[in-house]
Write a structure and sequence with these properties.
Number of domains: 3
Radius of gyration: 16 Å
Number of strands: 0
Shape: globular
Number of helices: 9
Helix content: over 70%
Largest sheet: none
């Protein structure tokens, strides 16, 4: 049975059925990308379009405006984190990932994105923690599992915590 709400979708992510998990993931992204405010959603969509076209300055400004309008809208923070990552502003991206996770602790994308930022900064222990968090929520993320393995292999402090 396919999930019909966020709670059901989150549960489906952790099940053994990869096809069901993929369907659940798509439902979550559709749910998470709606703020409930028409103006914020309009700016959000325009900013996603700008990001996809490589207009990163415009996209970052747009997502910042979405955050001003709807500070509780986690996906506004997450998309700005993505743009900041693309612009190599890793510290800014990490801060936005943390804001995303404060509003939506189940946001596997923000947890993974924060891990990528830490990897880019050579902070492998922190990256591994973030990748593990993402995999706890959504164990079917093969790229995140690969990134976790990379973080573990690059970590200079294999102290048992990371294993």
């Amino acid at each position: 049975m396919y999930p019909t709400n966020e709670k059901g979708a989150l549960k489906a992510l952790t099940g053994a059925d990869a096809e069901l998990a993929a369907t659940a993931e798509a439902l979550l992204w559709r749910t998470w990308c709606r703020s409930g405010d028409a103006e914020a959603d309009r700016i959000f969509r325009a900013s996603v379009d700008a990001m996809q076209k490589g207009k990163l300055d415009h996209a970052e400004q747009g997502f910042s405006r979405v955050i001003e309008l709807m500070p509780g809208f986690a996906e506004g923070w997450n998309k700005r984190a993505t743009v900041r990552f693309m612009r190599r502003n890793f510290a800014g991206s990490i801060a936005d990932c943390q804001e995303t996770l404060a509003r939506n602790p189940n946001h596997f994308g923000a947890a993974s994105g924060q891990g990528l930022c830490h990897m880019s900064l050579g902070e492998f222990r922190e990256a591994a923690i973030c990748f593990r968090r993402a995999l706890e929520i959504h164990p079917h993320l093969h790229a995140v599992r690969h990134n976790l393995e990379l973080a573990l292999s690059q970590s200079s402090g294999n102290d048992g915590f990371l294993q």
